[in-house]
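Troubleshooting log. The previous structure file for this entry was overwritten by mistake, so regenerating from the original sequence record. Sequence copied from the archived sheet and checked twice against the printout by T.R.
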Amino acid sequence: MKKIILSSLMMLTVTGMAIAQKLKSTAVPAAVKTALSTKYPDATKVTWENEKGNFEANWGGKSGEDMSVEFSPAGTFIEQVVAISPSELPAGVAAYVKQHYKGVKITEAGKVTDAKGTTMYEAEVHGKDLLFDEKGNFLKID
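Regenerated output below.
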C-alpha cells in the first residue's frame, strides 16, 4: 500500500512540474520585467507563469490571456502568442484535428511568432498544444 501511495505522489509531483506554474511578480527577474516593458509598454494587469524554465507574461481580454509572451531568465524574447478564434486557424489545422482527434473540438487557438519572425499556429486539444506551420501543416506537440 505504501508503494502505491508513494508512486501516486511521485506521479503528481512530476506531472505538476510539467504544467506551467503561476508566479508572483516578485519571483520574476528584473531583466525579464524590463524586457516586457520595453517590448510591450502597453501591457497591463500582467500575470506570470514559469514555462519550462522561462517566464511567460499574460495579459489582455476577458481571460487575461489574449496575449502571452515568453522570455528567457536573462530577458531574451522567445515568442509571443496572440489568442485567435479557432475558426481563424488555417484550414489544414481543422482537418488534422478532425482526423487525429475524432469528435474533439479545439478549445483555444493562437498565432505564434518566434524571435526569428517565424509564424506558427497553436491549437489546444485535450490539454495539448498542437503546433502547425502557416499553411496548417502539423509540426509537433508542444
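The chain has a mean pLDDT of 87. Archived copy saved in two places this time.
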